[in-house]
Design a protein that fits this description.
- The protein is of the alpha/beta class and 76 residues long.
- Helices cover 17% and strands 34% of the residues.
- The strands form 2 sheets. Strands 1, 3, 5, 7 and 8 form a 5-stranded parallel β-sheet that branches.
- It starts with a helix and ends in a 5-residue tail after the last strand.
Protein backbone atom coordinates (compact mmCIF):
# COMPACT_ATOMS: atom_id res chain seq x y z
CA UNK A 1 0.00 0.00 0.00
CA UNK A 2 2.80 2.44 0.88
CA UNK A 3 4.66 1.70 -2.36
CA UNK A 4 1.51 2.34 -4.40
CA UNK A 5 0.78 5.57 -2.54
CA UNK A 6 4.37 6.77 -2.96
CA UNK A 7 4.32 6.15 -6.72
CA UNK A 8 1.01 7.97 -7.09
CA UNK A 9 2.37 10.95 -5.17
CA UNK A 10 5.49 11.08 -7.36
CA UNK A 11 3.31 11.01 -10.48
CA UNK A 12 1.12 13.76 -9.09
CA UNK A 13 4.10 15.97 -8.17
CA UNK A 14 5.60 15.43 -11.64
CA UNK A 15 2.29 16.35 -13.25
CA UNK A 16 2.11 12.96 -14.97
CA UNK A 17 -0.78 10.54 -15.20
CA UNK A 18 1.41 7.46 -15.85
CA UNK A 19 5.09 6.49 -15.96
CA UNK A 20 5.83 4.02 -18.73
CA UNK A 21 9.31 2.80 -19.58
CA UNK A 22 10.04 3.18 -23.32
CA UNK A 23 10.61 -0.59 -23.62
CA UNK A 24 7.20 -1.46 -22.12
CA UNK A 25 4.47 -2.63 -24.49
CA UNK A 26 0.82 -1.78 -23.93
CA UNK A 27 -2.15 -3.16 -25.84
CA UNK A 28 -3.70 -0.30 -27.83
CA UNK A 29 -7.06 -0.85 -26.12
CA UNK A 30 -5.69 -0.81 -22.57
CA UNK A 31 -6.62 2.13 -20.34
CA UNK A 32 -4.02 3.41 -17.88
CA UNK A 33 -4.58 5.76 -14.94
CA UNK A 34 -1.91 6.11 -12.28
CA UNK A 35 0.07 3.25 -13.80
CA UNK A 36 3.81 2.66 -13.48
CA UNK A 37 5.25 0.17 -16.01
CA UNK A 38 8.83 -0.98 -15.70
CA UNK A 39 11.29 -1.93 -18.42
CA UNK A 40 10.05 -4.74 -20.61
CA UNK A 41 6.62 -4.90 -18.97
CA UNK A 42 3.85 -6.04 -21.30
CA UNK A 43 0.08 -5.68 -21.14
CA UNK A 44 -1.35 -8.10 -23.71
CA UNK A 45 -5.09 -7.42 -23.34
CA UNK A 46 -7.36 -4.35 -23.47
CA UNK A 47 -7.67 -4.10 -19.68
CA UNK A 48 -7.79 -1.17 -17.29
CA UNK A 49 -4.72 -0.57 -15.10
CA UNK A 50 -5.47 1.86 -12.28
CA UNK A 51 -3.14 3.00 -9.49
CA UNK A 52 -0.91 -0.01 -10.12
CA UNK A 53 2.75 -0.90 -10.59
CA UNK A 54 3.85 -3.45 -13.17
CA UNK A 55 7.43 -4.38 -12.32
CA UNK A 56 10.12 -4.84 -14.99
CA UNK A 57 9.78 -7.90 -17.20
CA UNK A 58 6.23 -8.69 -16.09
CA UNK A 59 3.79 -9.91 -18.74
CA UNK A 60 0.11 -9.40 -18.05
CA UNK A 61 -1.92 -11.80 -20.19
CA UNK A 62 -5.11 -12.05 -18.13
CA UNK A 63 -8.38 -10.30 -18.99
CA UNK A 64 -8.90 -8.94 -15.45
CA UNK A 65 -8.47 -5.23 -14.73
CA UNK A 66 -5.72 -4.29 -12.28
CA UNK A 67 -6.67 -1.83 -9.54
CA UNK A 68 -4.20 -0.94 -6.75
CA UNK A 69 -2.03 -3.89 -7.70
CA UNK A 70 1.69 -4.56 -7.71
CA UNK A 71 2.39 -7.16 -10.38
CA UNK A 72 5.67 -9.01 -10.80
CA UNK A 73 6.85 -12.01 -12.77
CA UNK A 74 6.47 -14.13 -9.63
CA UNK A 75 3.27 -12.75 -8.06
CA UNK A 76 0.18 -10.98 -9.40
Amino acid sequence: SDLLDCNLEVLRLAGERNAIDPSARVHPGARLAGAVLGAGATIERPIEVVDSIILPGTHIEEDEDLVRTIASREVR
